[in-house]
Amino acid sequence: MRNLLLILTFFISIKGITQDFNFNISNVKIAEYINMEKKEGSEVCVNSSNNLASIGERHIIKFYKNELATKDYEAIYTYDKLDSSIISIRFLWNTKYSNSILDTKKIIIQKSFKNKYYDIKSSIEKKFGKGIDNSIEETYVGTSDHGQIKRGLIKTLIWKVDNNISVKLDTDISSLYEKGELSTYTGIFKITLDIIDNSKTENQLSEQALNRNLLDFLRGIENDELKKSEEYLSPYIYEGEKTEFIESAIGKTGKIVKLKPLKNSLDKRNLNYTQISNLKYKYIKPKKRGKNIIVSFDGIGKIYDIYEVDAKK
Q1: What is the SS3 assignment for 81-103?
Q2: How many Cβ atoms are within 10 Å of 88's Cβ, its own excluded?
Q3: pTM for this predicted structure
Q4: Which of 147, 165, 200 is the last residue of a domain?
Q5: Which residues contact 110 (CB under 8 A, 6 or more apart)?
Q6: In whole angstroms, what is the distance from residue 124 CA to residue 168 CA?
Q7: Residue numbers of the domain that contains 290
Q8: What is the pLDDT of residues 286-295, one digit of tens each?
Q9: Are residues 118 and 177 in the same domain?
Q10: Is 129 exposed, middle or buried (0-12, 13-18, 19+ CB in 10 A)?
Q11: What is the pLDDT of residue 243?
C-alpha cells in the first residue's frame, strides 16, 4: 500500500506542473520573474546569485525547487545589470533514477516526464505552430514485465518567435539501465526549455578577467576550499553535479596545478542560452608533454567545462 501511494504521488506531482511560460521576454524585467518564482515556492541558489565571479554587464540568478516527481526544477535567468532586461531563460526538470530494476515506479516516472514534455510542446505549438525538428527518432531497446522500454524520447525542437526571440525545447527521457566495462548508464529524465533574446547574447569578456576566475577556482581546490571553488562554476552546471565536476577537474589536472594561457587561443561560440569563451592553457605544473587544457567560460565568465586536448591541435 505504501509503495502504491508513493507511485501515485510521483505521478500526480509531475502531472500538476502547469507553468504559463512567457515567451515574449523582450520588455520584461527580472523583478517580474523573481516574484513569479517566489510565488511558486522556488528558492534562490546562493552561489549563483552572489555574482562573485560575474564579469561584464550581466548577472545570472538561479532558482531551485525540489519536486517529488521530478526531483529537481531549476530556472536560470540571465539579465542585463543596467536595465534589468532579460537576455535568456532556462527551465530545467531533471532527475536520475539509479535502480537497476525496470520497476513500476521507473516506468511511471518515464511516462510522467513524457507527458510533461508533450504538455510544454503543445502549449508552444498553440502559439507558434510546428517547430524545426532536429531530433533523433525514438529507439526501442527491449522489453520488461511492464512493456516495451525505449532508449529514450530524445528530441530537439526550435521555434523562432520573432526576429530576436527563439525558443528551444530539448528532452532526454530514458528508463534504460546499462552496465558497461568502463561506465554505467542508470537512465535519465531531463527536459530543458530555453527562451533566448538573440539580439543580446553577444558578450565581451576580457581574457584577463577569465584567467583571474580560473586562478581563483584552482586556488580554492589547492586550499581545500571546494565550496569557494563552486562559486566560480557556471550556473548551467546542474547543482547536483558540481561536486562531481570539481572531482573530475582534480582528476585531470591534479590538486596543485599551474597553467599558462596560450596566445591567440580565445574561441567564442554561441550556445543560444549563453555564449561560451574557450581558452587554451599549457601545463606548467604538473608537466604533461603533448597535452594542453581547454577551459570553457559562460556568458558571465564562470567555468562551464574543463577538458584536455592534444597539444598539436
Answers
A1: CCCCEEEEEEEEEEEECCCCCCC
A2: 25
A3: 0.71
A4: 200
A5: 150, 173, 174, 175, 189
A6: 10
A7: 207-310
A8: 877 788 999 9
A9: yes
A10: exposed
A11: 87
